[in-house]
């Protein structure tokens, strides 16, 4: 997308030292913006700057799954000066404001995939990615990330990788990962996406999680795509992953 095009959307995303997007939740929105070809620009925020920045913009705090009151992604819709926080309200706004091409936000199959993936894949990614994620953060964000995550864990981030702990986690979720992969391929005869020929929000949920993992650690990414289904969706979404900064 040409940089001289005036953006419709300002996307507030999470900063890392690789200078590309790596938040799995922000990636869902970025994929949607890229697929719909909506002109946007990114403002990357360090972890400790998220709350003060969004407060200054006048956003009302919410409650995320992590317990944070201020989160990214957040967007500003420039034409109406509207600010929206959290991925689902943002996705709903984008779909209603920019309906072409359409992105189905939910389906019975999509809900089943997302629910099972969160409980299973989320656990595996949590144990493998979090202790590595700290290494792609700036010193300020590293301090914030380590302090908040270790307070929640009750131990050092690195303890998640001690001995064979990591392999045990992946071995424990292997069967369900395969089962979710089978669900992803339900409509493989019709196309590479969850619902067939065109992507849905569930595809962006999958591809965003995989791209986030890949930015943090290629080895963890490879662990996931060895299961059928995941890699096919990721490959199909690659055209919408090109713009990542």
Description:
This is GST N-terminal domain-containing protein. Pfam families: GST_C_7 (PF22041), GST_N_2 (PF13409). Residues 13-102 form the GST N-terminal domain. InterPro entries: Glutathione_S-Trfase_N (IPR004045), GST_UstS-like_C (IPR054416), Thioredoxin-like_sf (IPR036249). The protein is 51% helix and 8% strand. The chain has helices at residues 24-36, 50-56, 87-97, 108-133, 139-153, 165-184, 201-216, 218-225, 230-237; strands at residues 9-14, 40-45, 74-77, 82-85. It folds into two domains: 9-97, Glutaredoxin (3-Layer(aba) Sandwich); 108-242, Glutathione S-transferase Yfyf (Class Pi), Chain A, domain 2, CATH 1.20.1050. Helix 1 (24-36) packs across helix 7 (201-216). The chain has 245 residues and is an alpha+beta fold. A four-stranded mixed β-sheet has the order 2-1-3-4, with helices on both faces. Strand 3 (74-77) and strand 4 (82-85) form a beta hairpin.
Report a brief summary of the structure.
By secondary structure, this protein is of the alpha+beta class. It has helices at residues 24-36, 50-56, 87-97, 108-133, 139-153, 165-184, 201-216, 218-225, 230-237, and strands at residues 9-14, 40-45, 74-77, 82-85. Helix content is 51%, strand content 8%.
